[in-house]
Write a structure and sequence with these properties.
The protein is built from ten helices and seven strands. The chain is of the alpha/beta class and about 250 residues long. About 40% of the residues are buried. The mean pLDDT is about 95.
């Protein structure tokens, strides 16, 4: 039996949730979510991942390269990089390479794409993740921002759109799309909480990443950007069906 973990990260523990799915050849069992996740709880959870287990984190793993360079220039009293071509530069300050890639897929489905980690309150959540990632590295579990390791960046709203789950969040709709999922007693109702539900989607995407069913950088330029900025692992439209353990002869 293997696990995937999903975390809907927020600035405060009160709105941070974690989900766990246990996988075997016969199906997948969704455990009760954990709400109000502190830094200490999350670090114990992620440091406790066994070989072959994955975790999906709903939070950007980095900031746009252009934004980092601009802030460094400003801090060092150097010329602002956007003195010319301000509109183009501002656009590069707002979104990472992976955000643009995900936006092209998700915006046609839900009318909007990923939020800006540099120009939106999401940046505060990313700062919390930067601290957690640093602590994981100190515990000899460094996070590969491309998602090549055990921890991957996920975008639950985008995954829901790709999988046709849409809004509002619904465990009934999820079970219709993935009838092989089983909730332990009391868990289905607990996942009516929006943060818990997004953590559950994050855990499913983590499984998709483990099985090679999520998007990866397509060229050297995207690989270099992902190593610094992070990379959203967005599943394909058939990815949810591909997670069904009964349809797979081996467990990855």
């Amino acid at each position: 039996m293997e696990r995937t973990i999903g975390v809907d990260l927020a600035v405060q523990p009160g709105t941070t949730a974690a989900a766990e799915i246990r996988w075997n050849r016969d199906g997948a069992e969704v455990k009760l979510p954990r709400l109000g996740c502190t830094d200490e709880y999350l670090l114990d959870l992620l440091l406790g991942l066994a070989s072959g287990e994955r975790a999906g984190i709903d939070c950007p793993f980095g900031w746009p390269t252009a934004f980092v360079e601009a802030i460094a220039a400003h801090a060092g009293h150097q010329p602002w990089p956007g003195n010319t071509g301000r509109a183009e530069h501002y656009a590069r300050l707002r979104l990472r390479t992976t955000d643009h890639v995900a936006d092209a897929v998700v915006r046609p489905l839900r009318g909007r794409g990923p939020l800006s980690v540099s120009m939106d309150k999401l940046g505060a959540t990313a700062a919390r993740w930067a601290y957690l990632a640093d602590q994981l590295a100190a515990g000899r579990r460094p996070v590969d921002r491309t998602g090549a390791g055990q921890v991957v960046e996920v975008y639950p709203a985008g995954a829901r759109a790709v999988w046709g789950l849409g809004d509002p969040r619904s465990t009934q709709a999820l079970l219709q799309a993935a009838p092989w999922l089983r909730f332990e007693p009391g868990a289905q109702k607990a996942y009516e909480n929006e943060h818990a539900f997004d953590a559950l989607i994050a855990a499913l995407v983590a499984r998709a990443a483990a099985l090679g069913l999520t998007s990866l950088p397509r060229n050297e330029q995207e690989e270099q950007a992902a190593a610094m900025e992070g990379w959203i692992h967005l599943p394909g439209p058939d990815g949810l069906a591909g997670l069904n353990p009964e349809c797979r002869q081996t467990i990855v």
